[in-house]
UniProtKB/TrEMBL annotation, chain A:
Major place of residence: membrane
Family per record: Belongs to the binding-protein-dependent transport system permease family. HisMQ subfamily.
Keyword terms: Amino-acid transport, Cell membrane, Membrane, Transmembrane, Transmembrane helix, Transport
Gene source species: Fulvimarina endophytica
Subcellular location: Cell inner membrane; Cell membrane
Stretches of the chain forming a coiled coil according to its record: none
InterPro entries for the chain: AA_ABC_transptr_permease_3TM, ArtM/GltK/GlnP/TcyL/YhdX-like, MetI-like, MetI-like_sf
Entry protein name: Amino acid ABC transporter permease
Transmembrane segments: 20-43, 55-77, 83-103, 187-210
Membrane-related topology note: Multi-pass membrane protein
Source domain of life: Bacteria
UniProtKB/TrEMBL annotation, chain B:
Protein name per its UniProtKB record: Amino acid ABC transporter ATP-binding protein
Residues covered by the ABC transporter domain: 2-239
Organism of this sequence: Fulvimarina endophytica
Gene Ontology molecular function, alphabetical: ABC-type amino acid transporter activity; ATP binding; ATP hydrolysis activity
CDD domains registered for this protein in UniProt: ABC_HisP_GlnQ (cd03262)
């Protein structure tokens, strides 16, 4: 066993840190879009709009049933061959789209479960007061479902941050892509990938810290 | 003027409401009594379509909703003319006490927030919970929660206030304060339809007592007529059991 090149590793840190914003940007935008899309999907699954429901079920089935990497390749390399206007799409956009659709499918299921789990009294009180179904969802049901779904949604966000590394396969130089290039130059693969692994780990740990605060905040109405 | 005509509700094979006809005058306070499982709660829940009636119609003022032809708009209109007080309070768990009261005013009535807030603070004084305005329902006692439930209903200024066994889920120590509040609501000549097992209370505040059994209205009349001189055998049996 050879000794690790600590000096090289330390030198890598500032270089890779420079790519953290891109990783967070991709995950951040994809998560924001996925939250909106998955909420809409979940509401549709609860209300079950005729016809539309079939498509939503198909959508969720496809994006849960196929690997994210396959979906990314399909968007980035495949679709432009069929739809000419998509040739303009860059790797970052394709990655954000893929992450959004893929994770929306998963997240919609946990949001749906949270919605369905909200106590019947909350639905009836909203109905009795004369709210429309949309008002009921927006003001009473979704806020309560958010609290129930929050821990799983943060889990998906963590997964998403790590999954941005797949953007490297679309030619995007993000944290993983940058590491790959550095390693290819130095041949110190173990050092390079160890550094990037720890960086991802730290990002996730920081997030976990905020998760606890978020949950405390969401639980404020239920603390006795 | 409120008129229920041949209101019918079936759950599967069982007919829970069997052609209920009932008229309620403006300002009248009607108390429904009767054995458990005879459709009293279902009657209330059919009036605002929490349970969808299978047949019959509901008329509140100039609004008539017929069971078979009821669409979403009609049901919404009906709900906006009624207010419902639940047995298990059913306060909005994600809203503070004050927000529980303003919610209907802002969302359903379209009031500006500041006006709704003023109204809520008046009601909070009425129900004696001004100091708990910012609290969440989970931090309140059962009696306090039900007072908020009644306050929420009061805010709506509804043509008809429906009370579904409002004290049945309460610990005995909280029943008094809730009944007191209901008495004060009754004094405002609010039109009320109340299902309760509190017979003494019913006798005090009701203009009319309706006795229901097995999905039918068996007998109705003034408290004195029903409690002191019941005509039907079923009414007599029931009153003997509960007194």
């Amino acid at each position: 066993m050879r000794a690790l090149d600590y000096e090289y590793m330390l030198g890598l840190v500032p270089i890779l840190l420079g790519y953290v914003p891109l990783t967070l940007m991709m995950a951040g935008i994809a998560m924001a879009c996925a939250l909106v899309l998955s909420s809409l999907l979940a509401i549709e699954r609860v209300i079950k709009v005729p016809v539309l429901d079939r498509f939503v079920v198909l959508f969720i089935s496809f994006f849960r049933g196929t690997p994210l990497l396959v979906q990314l390749f399909l968007f980035y390399y495949g679709l432009p061959q069929v739809f000419a206007f998509l040739t303009q799409i860059d790797g970052v956009t394709a990655a954000i789209m893929g992450l959004t659709l893929h994770f929306s499918a998963y997240m919609s299921e946990s949001i749906r479960a949270a919605i369905v789990g909200i106590d019947r009294s909350q639905w009836e009180a909203s109905e009795a007061i004369g709210m429309t179904r949309l008002q009921m969802m927006r003001r009473i049901i979704l806020p309560q479902a958010t609290r129930v779904a929050a821990p799983t949604l943060v889990n998906y966000l963590i997964d998403m941050i790590k999954s941005t590394s797949l953007a490297f396969t679309l030619g995007v130089t993000e944290m993983m892509g940058a590491t790959q290039k550095e390693a290819a130059g130095s041949f110190l693969y173990f050092e390079a990938f160890l550094v990037v692994a720890v960086l991802y780990w730290i990002i996730v740990e920081v997030l976990s810290f905020f998760q606890k605060r978020l949950e405390t905040y969401l639980n404020r109405a239920y603390a006795r | 003027m409120i008129r229920l005509s041949s209101l019918t509700k079936r759950f599967g094979e069982q007919t829970v409401l069997d052609g209920i006809d009932l008229s309620i005058e403006e300002g009248e306070r009607v108390v429904v009594i009767g054995p458990s499982g005879t459709g009293k709660s279902t009657l209330l829940r059919c009036i605002n379509f929490l349970d969808r009636p299978d047949h019959g119609s509901i008329k509140i003022g100039d609004l008539t909703v017929t069971a078979e032809r009821a669409n979403r708009r009609g049901i919404l209109a009906l709900r906006r003319r009624t207010a419902f007080v639940f047995q298990n309070y059913s306060l909005f768990a994600n809203r503070t006490v004050r927000e529980n009261i303003t919610e209907g005013l802002i969302v359903v009535r379209g009031w500006p927030a500041s006006k709704a807030r003023e109204r809520a603070d008046e009601i909070l004084r009425d129900i004696g919970l001004s100091d708990r305005a910012e609290a969440y329902p989970s931090a309140l006692s059962g009696g306090q929660q039900q007072r908020v439930g009644i306050g929420r209903a009061m805010a709506l200024d509804a043509d008809l206030m429906l009370f579904d066994e409002p004290t049945s889920a309460l610990d005995p120590e909280w029943v008094g304060e809730v009944l007191d509040l209901m008495r004060r609501v009754a004094e405002t000549r609010q039109t009320m339809l109340i299902v309760t097992h509190e017979m003494q209370f019913a006798r005090e505040i009701a203009d009319r007592i309706v006795f229901m059994d097995a999905g039918h209205i068996v007998e109705m009349g003034s408290p004195a007529a029903i409690f002191d001189d019941p005509k039907d055998r079923r009414t007599k049996n029931f009153l003997r059991r509960v007194s």
